[in-house]
Amino acid sequence: MIKLSDTQLVLLGAAAQRDDRNVLPLPGSLRGGAAKKVVGALLRRGFIAETVTDRITKADPALNRIWRNDEEGRAILLHITAAGLDALGIEADSAPQSPDEADGEAAGGTHPTAAPGAPVRRAPRAGTKLAMLVDMLRADGGATCDELAAALEWRRHTVRGALAGAVRKRLGLNVTAREVDGRGRVYSIK
């Protein structure tokens, strides 16, 4: 299983949810040397790649949509690769837009042909942790956050993030939570 830090998971997960697959904007708490270190590690592992555009646009730290500029002043963007999607357990079912098609706006989590606001429905690749998570949620009786964390070898906050991001937003599944005596809060998919 591919080991990723929590920050790397957040960056890749956010990029996977965007139609243009752009890694940027980075979270507000990730700046300067820390941003370069995390992005550099993902670049070296091939989970993200730099894309040179034809646009001559100055990188603006306030907007945080352009990674850097090349020697000729062209904007360089960062996008998630098929290997990055694979590391998250997502099949690369659609190619990202070319950088020139990306208008610089946050793409959100919708498919261009879907109704506005409708979540993109993707199936997790079999054998991945995300597929295990969905299977545990679909099982009779559901699963608690602690049970999911133990089975997936994740931390509780990673489980909660996956429930909100990957399962609810990206997969479009309806996760319900209820209190069960002796177990606590139990999550399930109907």
Brief characterization of the structure:
With 190 residues, the protein is an alpha+beta fold.
What labels would you give this structure?
Arc Repressor Mutant, subunit A; 3-stranded antiparallel beta sheet; 190 residues
What does this structure look like?
This protein has 190 residues and is an alpha+beta fold. The protein folds into two domains: 6-88, Arc Repressor Mutant, subunit A, CATH 1.10.10; 129-189, Arc Repressor Mutant, subunit A. Helices cover 35% and strands 17% of the residues. The protein is built from six helices and six strands; from the N terminus they run H-H-E-E-E-H-H-E-H-H-E-E. It has helices at 6-17, 32-45, 82-88, 129-138, 145-152, 156-170, and strands at residues 48-56, 68-69, 74-80, 143-144, 175-180, 184-189. A three-stranded antiparallel sheet has the order 1-3-2. Strand 2 and strand 3 (74-80) form a beta hairpin. Helix 1 (6-17) packs parallel to helix 6 (156-170) and helix 5 (145-152) crosses helix 6. It is elongated, with a radius of gyration of 18 Å. The model is unreliable at 94-121 (pLDDT under 50).
